[in-house]
Amino acid sequence: MKDARLIALGVYLRELRIEPHDIEKFEGRKMTQKAVYLAQYDGADLGYRYIWDSKGPYSPALAEDYNALMQAYLINPKLLEGKTIIESYTSVIHKICDLIYSKDKPDLETHQWVELLASLHYLQKVSEFSYRKSRTYLGREKPELSKYISKAEAELKNVSLL
C-alpha cells in the first residue's frame, strides 16, 4: 500500500532529522538520498535500490516517494502524528545521525558531508573500488570534497560502515 509506505518513509526521515519541507530544496533532497542510503546499508532497509549519480548514490523510487510524501504532508500536516519507527531501526538511525551531524565533522555543509560519506561508501562497498581508486575518482569528480576523504573514511570505519 502506497500510503503505508509513505508514512513509513516519513517517520524514518523524521528520525533522520529530515522534515517534509526540507525536501523542497535540492540540498534537502540530496541529504535525504544519502542519509537513507547509509541507514539502509547499515540494516534499516526500506527497500530502496540505488544507482550511481553525479552526486553519489541515488534511488529514483525514493525520489518519487519523497515527492509524494511532501504532497501528502501539504494536504495533511498531521499525517505522521502518533506514528513511530520500527524499533529495530532506531539504533541504526541514531548511529547514522551521529555520523552525519557529528560535532567533529569537517567544515562542510551537512549535505556536502553526507554526500561525501555516502559516495565514498558506495564506491568502496557497492562498486568495489579500492580506497586508492575511490580517492582518485572522488578527487576528480568532487574536487571540492577531496581534502576531506581521509576524514570521511575514518568516520565510516569508526561506525563499522567500511
Rounded mean pLDDT score: 92
What proportion of the residues is helical, as a percent range?
Answer: 55-70%
Radius of gyration: 15 Å
Structural class: mainly alpha
Q: Strand count, sense and closure of the main sheet?
A: 2 strands, antiparallel
List the helices and strands in order: HHEEHHHHH
Shape: globular
Number of strands: 2
- What is the domain tally? 1
DSSP strand (E) fraction? under 5%
User: Unreliable segments (pLDDT under 50, ≥5 consecutive)?
Assistant: none
Strand order of the largest sheet: 1-2
Number of helices: 7
Distance between the termini: 34 Å
The oligomeric state of the chains shown is single chain
